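Contributing: when you submit paired examples, paste them exactly as shown. First protein:
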Amino acid sequence: MGLNFDSGDVFAMRQLVLEADDEIVFKTDADGFILEASPAIGRLGFSLSEMLIGPHLRDLADAPFRPEIERAFA
């Protein structure tokens, strides 16, 4: 199942990432590593621009939710 976004959808999502002050919006690769995120991700104590590889989504989740995230990216 693929996702088909038109240019308006892509623009709206990009604006969410750029303008989200109090919410973390991110994009992951197929394995679950964060590729891009809104500036609010800095509230978690790190900056993606300073990292060679972004953290895995499971590393940001509470322990009870990690197995579900692992299954989603398997």
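Second protein:
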Amino acid sequence: MFSKLFALLFLIIFSPILFLTALFIFIEDGSPIFFKQQRVGLNKKLFWIYKFRSMKKNTPNVSKQSLQDPGSFYLKCGSFIRDFSIDELPNLINIFKGEMNFIGPRPALYNEYEFIEMREQAGVNSIKPGLTGWAQVNGRDYLINETKCRYDKEYLDKKSLYFNLKILLLSFWAVAKPIYMWFKRN
């Protein structure tokens, strides 16, 4: 219940950022504003994750790592949206709906069969996915699936209020650091 209340509160607090991001995406590339994709949730149940669209409409529905030249698919505002994790803010809708938590393993793509099976064997599919997690603060998209799964299993084994708070603080730093560096350069 607390997750749902906090998700609603954050949706209200971040509404100006949500509105401006939606406006920039719409002006540059029209609708849809949101990118919707099937992901693997609790006990391997599929759900639709919501993100701001940072790539053009014609981008194939695969992971960024699977694209030949991911940069050519970004909207002009897309890199900014992704670098500052603004694209993830609509995940608050998934938290409000009860499909995700704030902290947990990031939900796998529906078609990452080997990764889903790795997580199944490690028991990771038995917990709700999260907006941020132990693997994200230890490398995010730069980790190979085996390493992500190892971090996800470590999270499962160490899961506690203290560990969640640690991940939350590290996540804030991971978002704040690029913002700080951006302002420092400009």
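If you have annotations for the second protein, write them as plain sentences, like these:
Residues 161-185 form the longest helix (25 residues).
The two ends are 41 Å apart (CA to CA).
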